[in-house]
Amino acid sequence: MWQVVGQHRVVSLLQRSLEKGVVAHAYLLVGPPHVGKMTLALNLAQALNCEADKPPCGECASCQKIALDKHADVQIIGLTQNRDSAEAKPRVEISIDQIRQMQHSASLPPFEGRHKAFIIDQAERLSTEAANCLLKTLEEPVAKVIFILLATNDRLLPATVVSRCQRLELPPIAATEVEATLNSGWGIEPQRAKLLARLCHGCLGWAVSAALDDDLLKLRAQRIERLVDIADADCEERFAYAAQLAAQFSQNRGLVQEELDLWLDWWRDLLLIKAGCRDIITNVDLEASLIEVAGSYSLAQIKAVISSIQAAGKQLRQNANPRLVLEVLMLDIPRRRCVSVKYG
Ligand SMILES: [Zn+2]
Q: Which of 108, 150, 181, 286 could be bridged to 37 by S-S, CB 3.0 to 4.6 A?
């Protein structure tokens, strides 16, 4: 049974390919973080090596080994820190050495299964040399070897690499499906499942992590507190915050995007409160604070901030200077009338 949740279209496509024996030699799974790309990749590796009649069974020795990352023929290649002698800071990327090791391993026959599967996580962070090296492998398919690239933003991958893979998009899952899965599959109590389903924006993996680790929700509360406080801050504080975020961006783009997504949720919720649509807000646990803050802004101000956050996100994705983008965004957040807010 496929364990990935909500990706019915992609799963049925892969299932048909498996049944017809026409599995591609390379797939590119594209979707937001935590949407289920790794689960699907592991499921596909299981399906190719499963010992049961209806693969992937999830129970045979092969399926279990793959789930535990203990199967000799299934490898996950991820980010490592690399540093040239001339560079002060290490680069976090997938290096050419990792791809060369993978190629060597791919040239050997399967050790214990029927197929070798190489899963390249965060493939958009292949170094240029690594991507060029991988391209040669993708151009010369080998029987019983499959490559599964996972990416959040495949526009950051060379078009030559993308064109040699079968591209499958994993869209966010419906909130109702996340809520039901959290409830029935993970035993999360209904109120908490509802909150996590709204907060995760269709990415079940994030909701499950937050359900198991309270720190994620605490971190969210701190970020929102900071976000509300920035509206009362002077230029100096706002620029200091922009500089801090820009520094984070150079190390981990995803973290800053998460922060902007959080802001967007907050300001969209303020808009929904203003419009009298409380039922569909994301931050259901902070409704009282949202109502209080919404009273400090006009509808036009809230709409303008939402546009600014969206513009900043777009510019960052287009590789604009992060510090400049974030400074402009900071200046676009209007001061609010003096009210005190309690955070949930
Ligand atoms: Zn199995």
A: 150
